[in-house]
Amino acid sequence: MRKRLGMLLLCLSLMLFFAACVWRPASIEQQQEKEEHLQTPPAEDEWSKLESEVESTPAERFIFTNENYPAMGGSLAALPLGEAITAAALGITRQEAAERLVFTGSTTDNYHALVNGTFDILLAYEPSAEAKQYAEDMDFTWEMTPIGRDALVFIANAENPVISLTPEEIRAIYSGELTNWAELGGMDAEIIPYQRNRDSGSQTLFDLFFPLGDELMTPPADYLIDSMLGLLEVIADYDDSTNALGYTVYYYLTNMETDKLSRSKILAINGIEANNETIASNEYPYCNDFYVVIDASLPADDPARILYNWICSEQVRELGERENYVMLQYFSL
């Protein structure tokens, strides 16, 4: 009797052991979580695609929220990058990030806003001499790291037969010495050389590459354009636009205003065309970095510094590439 009872207990023990080892399907919640993790996002939603491949949390023990996320400003051409960063850091949709961020005013205005405390962090192009002087006057020191590269490009109407300029020709045009397209192998028509407002990022780059000083011609009021879009419109759309010449930054024209690009063209410089490859290699002559910028005095645990450090990481470089920026990993610093 005892022997039979022992055998029965042994069988029951074995049954319980194997039952415990049998695979059971995950709960509905676990299965949904797994499927959501493995699900391939729609091709058009690039930030979501990247979020599935790159960690979206900028620091292992820090979580950004709507309340602690730094106020971000910057140059208009850096706006798509700002949206992608914000969407990934907060775990929100790209549309929600676009509604949250508004990059307005000139690049100089945005540097002023950082100094004044309106913004905590910038994604911005080269600071103007005025912005640097303002920071010095306010006893403010910023910390800036280059994260990508763009270029100043010269644009003409699509119907203009001229395809390339030399640096000497550009200097002569904007100093008022060269006034007719025929002198450049084009049509017999007066060159209308548009300029940007003094505190714009585009004008800062023009002054950097063409320090004409007093030689820079004083333009008529209607030749001085106060917005990036306005400059593209006078080149592509207005009456006499076939005579026009202007300048802007490469990324803005080729990625944010492609409809204007279809009615205008980027002029090569000494036969070298601007594109991501020639900008990354510095073969195109008028390249310049853009930056992430914060108050240099911020402590290590400040949300703006944490975000700053993350923006300097490989993860954000990949985000920038997805937005078609030339990021610094393309070349040696």
Fold and architecture overview:
The chain is an alpha/beta fold and about 325 residues long. It has 2 domains: about 45-150 and about 290-330, Periplasmic binding protein-like II (D-Maltodextrin-Binding Protein, domain 2), CATH 3.40.190.10; about 150-280, D-Maltodextrin-Binding Protein, domain 2, CATH 3.40.190.10. Helix content is about 40%, strand content about 15%. The chain is built from 15 helices and 12 strands. It has helices at about 1-20, 30-40, 45-50, 80-90, 95-100, 105-115, 130-135, 165-175, 200-210, 230-235, 250-255, 260, 275-280, 305-310, 315-320, and strands at about 70-75, 120-125, 140-155, 165, 190-195, 195, 225, 245-250, 265, 270, 285-295, 325. The strands form 3 sheets. Strands 1, 2, 3, 5, 8, 9, 11 and 12 form an 8-stranded mixed β-sheet that branches. Strands 4-10 form a two-stranded parallel ribbon. The longest helix is centred in the first third of the chain and has 20 residues, at about 1-20.
